[in-house]
């Protein structure tokens, strides 16, 4: 599975991943597609934005190729855990 197919396959999971899994996916996706997080940290009352920023910042320094590899591996784990919807 390549990165683009992993992104598309994720949309067909039979059940929704946990919030922590979603945040990990988000951080890896942003690292893989944009690179290191250089944006300002959101304000403390922006809970969603702050959680996403933190998730992305956790993988700072990871190469884009390595982030893609980790994203693909995590999608594989989630497929095994939740299964896929029937086409």
Write structural notes for this entry.
The chain is an all-alpha fold and 87 residues long. It has one domain: Up-down Bundle (Acyl-CoA Binding Protein). The protein has four helices and no strands. The protein is globular and about 40 Å long. The two termini are 18 Å apart. The model has no long low-confidence stretch (mean pLDDT 96).
In short:
The chain is an all-alpha fold and 87 residues long. The protein has helices at 3-10, 19-33, 47-58, 64-82.
Give the C-alpha Rg: 13 Å
Q: Specify the biggest β-sheet.
A: none
* Top-tier CATH class: Mainly Alpha
| Count of individual beta strands | 0
Uncertain runs are none
Decide which structural class fits the backbone.
mainly alpha
Order of helix and strand elements from N to C terminus: HHHH
Distance between the termini: 18 Å
Tally of individual helices: 4
Question: Roughly what fraction of the amino acids lie in strands?
Answer: under 5%
Counting structural domains, the number is 1
Average residue-wise pLDDT: 96
CATH architectural type: Up-down Bundle
